[in-house]
C-alpha cells in the first residue's frame, strides 16, 4: 500500500509556510514515492475538517500520515484518532478554543492576504473536535519551551505517554525544524515506503 502525508498548517498560515515547504522538499528528495498533500485550510473548523476528510477519503488505497503545526496539530489529533493513523504534532495547540477567542473578528492571512472572520461559533466547533482519550503510540510530539504563543507544558501533559521531543528555547515556529525531518520520517516509517 502506498503512503501519503497530509501536512496541516496552523492558524493564519498556509502551504507556503516554511515548515510546510521544508517538509515538501525533504520528502521529494528522500521519500519520492510518498505523496505529499498540503492544502490551504478553510477558515471554519468544521469546513476545515470536512475538507481534510475529503482528501483522506478520496484515496482509500493509501496509508495516511499526518503532520500538524499549531492548530494543525489539533486537527491532526482529531484525524489520527478517527482514522487511527500516525501523526507528528509540532508545537500543537491543545485548547485552541480558549486561545483563539482573543482573535474573534476580522483577520487577514499574512500569506494569502485573504480577509476572513473568526466567529464565536468557531470556538464551539473547535471544542467539539477535542479528543479526551488518545492512542498514545500514534503520536510524536515536538515542542520547544520558548514557544511564545502556546504553553508547551499543555502538550507535554496531554501526550506524556507518546513519543515526546522537548527542546529548550526555540519559539512557536519551531527553530531548526529541518533538523527534525529525519526523526519525523523515521517515526512515520516513510523511508523506503
TrEMBL record:
InterPro entries: AB_hydrolase_fold, UPF0227/Esterase_YqiA
Pfam (any one): UPF0227
Database matches in PANTHER family: ESTERASE YQIA, ESTERASE YQIA-RELATED
Official protein name in the record: Esterase YqiA
Biological source species: Thalassotalea euphylliae
Amino acid at each position: 500500500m502506498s503512503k501519503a502525508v497530509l501536512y496541516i498548517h496552523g492558524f493564519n498560515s498556509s502551504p507556503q509556510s516554511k515548515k510546510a515547504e521544508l517538509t515538501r522538499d525533504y520528502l521529494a528528495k528522500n521519500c519520492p514515492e510518498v505523496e505529499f498533500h498540503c492544502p490551504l485550510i478553510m477558515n471554519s473548523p468544521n469546513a476545515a475538517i470536512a475538507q481534510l476528510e475529503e482528501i483522506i477519503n478520496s484515496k482509500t488505497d493509501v496509508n495516511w500520515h499526518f503532520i500538524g503545526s499549531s492548530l494543525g496539530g489539533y486537527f491532526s489529533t482529531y484525524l489520527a484518532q478517527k482514522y487511527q493513523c500516525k501523526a507528528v504534532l509540532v508545537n500543537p495547540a491543545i485548547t485552541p478554543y480558549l486561545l483563539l477567542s482573543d482573535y474573534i473578528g476580522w483577520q487577514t492571512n499574512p500569506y494569502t492576504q485573504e480577509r476572513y472572520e473568526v466567529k464565536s461559533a468557531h470556538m464551539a466547533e473547535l471544542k467539539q473536535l477535542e479528543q479526551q482519550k488518545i492512542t498514545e503510540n500514534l503520536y510524536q510530539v515536538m515542542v520547544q519551551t520558548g514557544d511564545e504563543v502556546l504553553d508547551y507544558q499543555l502538550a507535554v501533559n496531554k501526550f506524556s505517554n507518546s513519543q515526546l521531543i522537548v527542546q529548550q528555547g526555540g519559539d512557536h515556529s519551531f527553530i531548526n525544524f529541518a533538523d527534525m525531518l529525519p526523526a519525523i520520517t523515521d517515526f512515520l516509517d516513510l523511508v523506503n515506503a
